Amino acid sequence: MRRRYGWLFLALILFLSVLLPALANEMQEGSMYVYTPNGKTLHLRSSKSTADDKNIIREIPYGGKVYVADWDATWARIEYMGDSGYVVRKYLRIGPPASFEEDQAKKETAKEEKAAKKALEKELRAAQNKLDRSTIKSIPEYDVSVITELEDETVKLYKTASLLASVLKEYTSGARLTVIAQNNDWAKVYDGADDLTGYILRADLAEDVMEEEILED
What we know:
Mean pLDDT: 86
Distance between the termini: 96 Å
CATH topology of the domain at 25-100: SH3 type barrels
Strand order of the largest sheet: 6-5-4-1-7
Shape: rod-shaped
Largest sheet: 5 strands, antiparallel
CATH superfamily of the domain at 25-100: SH3 Domains
């Protein structure tokens, strides 16, 4: 029984050793760096208060390296350039931040990518609304080949008959599939190689034509 409780005690210690650093919000004793979202300086204060500016000892620049001695939920007690005091802990990072210009450039890139994604989704919805939404009906099966305008272009196999549906697979030009149902715009196809069934735009498919055998006289 003692051995069992011993293992439980060790497991608890291991769990806390993983959990507590996470709860500390990546705080650590030792060297850390100032990171402010606007790139401005961080106030080093003589007390844990932002009520007025009378307790400001000095300014610490963006990216400044400080030594953390202790912290609580809001404040960190640090040393910087011979001065000791308190800073708001959320503005400290373990690793040195990129320059403020680089950080802003990354944020702007992420913002542009998010806007581009929204624009693409809007474009896809508009295109989807123009597609035939009538019931896709079963037909006698026939074989088709994937066709693309560009050599390195791919054609998507969607889970449902929608440009916004998840993509099951992408095909290059010449891939062979079997159409099992269709409407004016969509073809429900079967991929025997990977045992997949999904939907492809009919405009991206060409029906295989069997060449007649030429008999020589």
